[in-house]
Amino acid sequence: MPGPVPRIRHVASALAAVLVAACAPREAPRHGPPSEAAPALGTRPWSAVDPEWLARRPADPVEAAAQLDVALDAFDAARLLRDDGARERLEAYVGPWSPSHGPLATAEVTERLLARALDVADAAATRLGTDHAAHAFAADAVTLLAADTYMPVDAEELLARVEAYRTVVALGTAPAADNARLRLFDFVRGVLADAAAAPAPRRYEIASFALLVAGRDPAPILARPPRATYPAPQDLVQILYDPIEPLVDTAVWGGTIGRLRQRAKRLAGTTMALLPAPRRPLTELVGRIAPAVPPGFLPSESLAPVLVVRDGKAAVDPGHPTGVRIRLDADRGAALAAALEGALA
């Protein structure tokens, strides 16, 4: 059985025949001689590029690859930053689309970009060879955009999509690796946002998919067994920021990373507030109280906040940044003990 990355590359090949025919630009292509203004790959922000240049259809595959590079950056900036300038340049490259916003618009633009990337890759391979930087970048762009287009239906296919992005980060061309990092960031952002909107018992189940970006398997957590060791909320938040940190020093993204961080800051705070603190495995806690409890008789972890009462003090979710600690006098301690006994009776 093929591994995740070959599998997603197979998906890209399967999509190619459909997309080349179905996703042609709405306007007739405008050919012209190579432009001296064409930037080298990964060297010029989309905001510094003339939209008129992006509207051309150059015969030179090197210039076509440079256009694709800028257009892919503009696509990511339009999606993640809601940047109007990026949207203008993206429209110059792929033509107008309808509806103007939302998932359907994103899907349509993704398909058009994929069709263009396939064209650039084919032209570069034919005229320059598969070892040329223009072909390498276009091939990476095909991998990213095919993964964007392919909608996973189960955890295995979701892993294949994330692994496609991770592979481009590790082995791809530098400009495409930056676009892959943005996709990993966006994946974690979506996972944590979905977790925050979910009922409390399901939050960790959803948030644990962020571990895929760090190359970790969430399966032991998804089962919510008594022996599970759950990641700390701050670890999940760090996974959100990790993909975009290398972009700080890049010519294209260095000036915009602050805007991405700002967009993530509120979600990071929500994640820290809503996910419970790490706790000892349930088997350890119960074992200290009732060592004779046989295996298989422990319930799944509820992920409810933990209450610890000890030495005249009560702590709700100790170890959590938002944990609450209360000093108990004798009367409050007795009342709390009675309430707990009643709840457990």
Computed over alpha carbons, the radius of gyration is: 25 Å
Quaternary assembly: single chain
The number of helical segments is 14
Along the chain, the helix and strand elements come as HEHEHHHHHHHHHHHEEEH
Strand order of the largest sheet: 3-4-5
Poorly predicted regions are: 1-36, 282-290
- Per DSSP E runs of 2 or more residues, the count of β-strands stands at 5
* CA-based shape: elongated
Rounded mean pLDDT score: 78
- Beta-strand percent range: under 5%
Taking the alpha carbons of the first and last residues, their distance comes to: 52 Å
* Overall SS class: mainly alpha
- Percent of residues in helices comes to 55-70%
The biggest sheet amounts to: 3 strands, antiparallel
Task: Write structural notes for this entry.
- The chain has helices at residues 4-22, 51-54, 61-81, 84-94, 103-127, 133-149, 155-171, 174-197, 203-207, 219-222, 233-241, 257-274, 282-289, 330-344, and strands spanning 31-32, 57-58, 307-310, 313-316, 324-327.
- It is mainly alpha-helical.
- The strands form two sheets. Strands 3-4-5 form a three-stranded antiparallel β-sheet, with no helix packed on it. The chain has a two-stranded parallel ribbon with strand order 1-2.
- Strand 1 (31-32), helix 2 and strand 2 (57-58) form a beta-alpha-beta unit.
- Helix 1 packs across helix 5 and helix 6 runs parallel beside helix 8.
- The radius of gyration is 25 Å and the shape is elongated.
- The N and C termini lie far apart (52 Å).
- The relative contact order is 0.09.
- The model is unreliable at 1-36 and 282-290 (pLDDT under 50).
